[in-house]
Fold this sequence. Notes:
- The protein has helices at residues 2-7, 18-23, 27-44, 46-64, 97-107, 122-129, 195-212, 244-248, 261-267, and strands at residues 77-79, 83-89, 111-115, 134-135, 148-151, 155-162, 169-177, 180-187, 219-225, 241-243, 272-277, 280-289, 296-307.
- It is an alpha+beta fold.
- It folds into two domains: 2-67; 77-307, 4-Layer Sandwich (Deoxyribonuclease I, Chain A), CATH 3.60.10.
- The chain is globular, with a radius of gyration of 20 Å.
- Keywords: Membrane, Transmembrane, Transmembrane helix.
- Pfam families: Exo_endo_phos.
- The chain crosses the membrane at residues 23-45, 50-71.
Amino acid sequence: MCLFLIALPSISALKGSWLLDLVVNFQLTYALLTFFLLIVTFWLVRSLFLISFCLYVVFTIVNFASLLPAVPNLTGHSVSDDVYVFQGNLSYYNADMDALYDFLDKKNADIYILFEVNDTQREAFGKLANGRPNLGYAQIEGLPAGMGIISKYPIVKRHIHQFEGKSAVIIELELLIDHQLVRFYALHPPSPRTKESWQTRNQLLAELKNLVKHHPQQITWITGDINTSPWSYYFPRFDFLTPCIEQVGYYTSWPHSKAVAWLANVVRIAIDHCFMSEHMTILEFKTVTIPNSDHLGLEYRFILNQSR
């Protein structure tokens, strides 16, 4: 059974199955459980051990090989100043908003990408922005699907794409960073708790791919709490963008809980992501605890590369 679970990402039939698409995300958990059971098999049923172990190694390599950290290659490029980003899901019902916004303010990030921003905290969001370009404080646009963006860099253009379904929104901005235009997207599709919300999530990820494919030559950066992991059939793949998890190596971001930390560490998966075109390179990356949120935040620095 455990070998079947770690083989799930290789099964094309997952495309139409809501339940299997949910189950497939917990590959690290399955890998650890299978390893433990293999030890038991070695002692109790040695005749099954060798073939089971070989299958385990093959599927584990297939599942995790692309998630090993890459070495940044800056040869032959001029390099911009690094950009410090904080990206995270704050939780709409965060129990201590004062502590949360104090935490965010102390980060002093160049760009904040925030999900599940409670609209009753608009003034706190505005105080965090402190006059910097942002999307979220102005009443006319509000916080689309609970998303708020704060940037020290100019926002040259903005477009909020609305699609059918709850939280079916994609923010599209053009940021002027180091004299270069960066096309930026942010999205937070619904959690796939029901088959209907799963279908809405999948459709929004498909709409994202349609938007992005029209600008293959432009510097492009996508961020989101996309509610799926790299092992899902529906995890977005792009011809000219690389998931950050394939640059920095495997990490996890949800669920986070101090109360049952040991359990959260075992079942936690990566559903908070970024994607970058070849013009961008991550120099530093780490996950951080957000006060009273069930997500870990992503904290990273990147540079823009420009061929000489």
